[in-house]
Specification:
Chain lengths: ~450, ~350
């Protein structure tokens, strides 16, 4: 029995492989590795994030724009020479050079590394490049979004919302800074400013006597301070998720001029309305995107909290006498006629969208915000407000970048002040032409 | 200028190996190296410095630093050359040129000496490629091949930008924020005095100042738009001021908060400090300031050069445009050529120098 085990053991131990020397190190392969490593170490210090895999290296820089570099180095032995075919693609500009070294020189790998790295860096360090000088190449833009103009009309369940019988001119824009989507990397960490969204819209009244000011206006800025991007591709289908922590500010106000559109003015004294300003100190958000042969689909969600200033339905319908009797939560000074209170806001938003479904874009959005009075100096008084916005929309692409969009919004506000409750609903309709930028 | 360019010779890394520096001004009447030596410029290097009055070639592993004055078109140019040899037996030469009397003469010399000291104990390729090019002040880089083929590099060329020092940026940020707050004070006390008087509680005296501090912060009663638009816009300008003075997002936030605090305590000394302003000014500054800054950077690279681009960039990030112009006024670029010198060439160079002398 012992022989049965001993003989195979000896064969294994004494086999030629066991005595063979370690295979000679592939100096060329090591040189290529060193080229990648030294090059990436330098450009990392200049703000690039590098990913090395197999026979190529990809690097990205997001600081306010999008820079993309791809490097591939192929090696080939030709008698006494070793060739390194080096290709550098920077923002769509492709350059290639073949370096040849005498491989009988024992120091040639060091020389090769120094030379190839120097060439790569010399083609990389070119500050002040502009897209204007790069018409013939594809330099991808990190922004996408739209500009829109249209007709907007709002009315409520009781009356037409502040003298808007005629509706108003609508102007809006949305921009998303999202450079990581261009990388198609399976994973990328995102740092401060690597993902931002900006939404702005305003409505100008059509009434000639009020055309000199903008009425309703809104903005929302969110900036990511820590997050991740994940991407997978399967055939023609792609899936991408961006999630992380954000900070942002959201603002809505029904009137521009302080001295006209205050609660005490006719426009608002008799009209329910809401205005708010939220600093979303911390928000957690997720955006998922799917692309396949039928279209593009996306889902987004964000929840956060932070200090805010907002109005209440209880702060309307006052005359000068009532002003003296209002709740101290409403911080107005005599004469300043404000109707807001300081609060903590808990905003939540969600959106589902299908894009390029045939020529259509369909979306469904929902916004919720709970405002809770938070002025520590005022005791025994409390208030809260709930704002809910439900917003389906449908659009059709007339041209590749031009879309006719219909947007309906139902705004619901519920106010509580010291146990009393009020609520109100507005309906809004928007018809707009969107110029879409990808 | 010496105040502005305080990069200084203190940046030299102290080497373990002893070495010496030999200085030689090769043009009669142009004694820039002697003057720098007399001013103690080389002292931080902790190396014996010899000012040569006769062209004696240096010995050992030291630096041989020479200056020469040349005239090109309208300008007199100061040419510098630094010859050295390192522990790998590499002979190298750094050569660079600045205008005679330029404010960056010392800073350029500092940076080259910094590279030369690194090259004493390491591969010159490594110093040029890995250390120098990774610096953000290197704005251009090229190299030359040996004339007998493509197998080796004979030298590098680095374009280095000498901008203001970090200390300069600090004081410039401070000055600009003071200036902006001063404009705010003019507006507050002169233009919108009537509106602002509503919540004045303190007078300009020691008792009220003490009371203002002990009263602490409160949520203010200003109108909605002042709280939500004007203060945020102030924050944007504060943030972009610091950001365009070479501070990162976190440093710029600290400056924005400091400027807001200054405004609340000093600018608006007649009012109680506003908690909401102290939140919305710096945070609005960070959120919108960074967003608009990035948009401005992108617009600058995307739009064709011209008035429209300038206008868009100025609207999005005015302080970056202002500070970039200031940088151009006080900063300057120069090109350093780094060459490998074989021993024979090194001797020839020295012989030429001797001949010139």
């Amino acid at each position: 029995m012992k022989k049965i085990f001993f003989i195979p053991l000896m064969i294994a131990v004494l086999s030629p492989q066991a005595f063979a020397q370690n295979p000679p190190r592939d100096a060329d392969a090591e040189a290529v590795r060193a080229m990648y490593t030294r090059y990436s170490n330098v450009i990392k210090k200049r703000g690039f994030t590098c990913f090395q895999g197999g026979e190529n290296l990809r690097a990205f820089r997001f600081s306010g724009d999008y820079d993309e570099i791809q490097v591939s180095i192929a090696r080939e032995k030709k008698n006494r020479a070793t060739e390194f075919r080096t290709t550098l693609t920077k923002n769509g500009r492709i350059e290639e050079r073949v370096f040849s070294f005498n491989n009988t020189n024992p120091n040639y790998p060091v020389t090769a590394v120094n030379t190839v790295v120097a060439w790569l860096l010399s083609r990389t360090i070119m500050e002040g490049e502009s897209r204007g000088e790069s018409e013939n190449r594809e330099w991808k833009s990190p922004y996408y979004g739209w500009f829109a103009a249209g007709y907007h009309r709002a009315h409520d369940t009781v009356k037409i919302y502040p003298e808007k019988r005629e509706g108003g001119y609508y102007f809006g824009m949305s921009a998303t800074y999202d450079p990581s989507r261009l990388t198609e990397q399976p994973y990328m960490p995102l740092r401060f400013g690597d993902y931002m969204t900006m939404d702005i819209w305003a409505v100008a009244d059509t009434a000639p006597e009020r055309r000199n000011y903008v009425n309703e206006h809104f903005f929302n800025f969110d900036i990511m301070f820590y997050g991740s991007h994940r991407f997978t591709r399967s055939g023609q289908s792609t899936r991408r998720v961006v999630y992380g922590f954000y900070t942002g500010m959201e603002f809505f106000r029904p009137g521009w001029k302080d001295n006209v559109l205050l609660w005490s003015h006719d426009l608002y004294r008799d009209q329910p309305h809401i205005q708010y300003m939220i600093w979303r100190a911390v928000g957690w958000g997720l955006t998922a995107q799917w692309n396949n042969s039928t279209g593009s689909y996306s889902a987004s969600f964000m929840a956060g909290l932070g200090p805010s200033i907002n109005s209440s339905l209880f702060a309307i319908s006052w005359d000068a006498q009532d002003e003296q009797n209002r709740s101290p939560l409403f911080q107005s000074l005599t004469g300043s006629k404000q109707n807001y209170y300081y609060s903590t806001a808990y905003p939540v938003s969600a959106m589902l969208a299908a894009e390029r479904l045939w020529r259509l874009r369909l979306s469904m959005g929902y916004n919720f915000c709970f405002f809770l009075s938070s002025d520590p100096a005022i005791k025994g008084e409390w208030a809260w407000d709930i704002l809910q916005i439900f917003k389906p929309s449908a659009g059709v692409y007339l041209l590749d970048n031009l879309m006719l969009n219909f947007n309906y919004e139902r705004w619901y506000v519920h106010s509580m002040l010291n146990g009393d409750h009020l609520s109100h609903t507005w309906n809004r309709l928007l018809m707009e032409l969107r110029y879409v930028v990808r | 200028m010496a105040f502005i360019f305080s990069f200084g010779a203190n940046a030299f890394p102290a080497g373990d190996e002893p070495f010496s520096i030999a200085l030689l001004d090769t043009t009669a009447g142009f004694t820039v190296l002697r003057d720098l030596n007399n001013e103690g410029f080389f002292e931080p290097m902790r190396a014996p410095v010899t000012y040569l009055t006769a062209p004696t070639p240096p010995v050992g592993s030291g630096f041989f630093l020479t200056s020469a004055l040349t005239s090109s078109n309208e300008n007199d140019m100061a040419n510098f050359s630094l010859l050295g040899k390192n522990s790998l037996d590499q002979n190298f030469r750094f050569a660079w040129q600045v205008e005679k009397g330029s404010g960056i003469t010392e800073d350029a010399l500092s940076r080259v000496l910094d590279l030369a000291v690194q090259a004493r104990t390491g591969d010159v390729n490594g110093v040029a490629l890995d250390n120098a090019v990774s610096r953000s002040d290197v704005t251009g880089f090229s190299f030359t091949f040996n004339s007998d083929g493509e197998e080796a590099i004979s030298g590098y060329s680095l374009s280095m930008n000498i901008g203001p020092s970090q200390r300069h940026y600090f004081w410039r940020t401070f000055g600009e924020l003071m200036f902006l707050n001063s404009l705010g004070v003019l507006n507050y006390f002169l233009i919108q005095r009537e509106d602002n008087m509503v919540d004045w509680e303190y007078k300009l005296n020691r008792e009220d100042a003490r009371k203002k501090i002990t009263d602490g912060w409160c949520l203010d009663t200003n109108n909605f738009r002042t709280n939500s638009i004007y203060h945020i816009y102030s924050g944007i300008i504060y943030y972009q001021t610091a950001r365009s003075n070479n501070y990162g997002p976190w440093g710029s936030f600290v400056w924005t908060f400091a400027a807001s605090t200054f405004w609340e305590y000093i600018g608006e000394y007649r009012e109680q400090v506003s908690t909401n302003d102290q939140i919305f000014t710096p945070m609005g500054g960070v959120i919108f300031g960074e967003g608009l800054r990035q948009l401005g950077l992108w617009a600058e690279r995307s739009m064709p050069r011209g008035f429209a681009r300038g206008l868009v960039c100025f609207v999005l990030d005015p302080m970056r445009i202002v500070n970039r112009q200031l940088d151009r006024w006080v900063g300057e670029s120069f090109v350093v050529n780094v060459n490998f010198v074989n021993p024979a060439q090194s001797m020839i160079s020295k012989a030429v120098l001797e001949g010139r002398r």
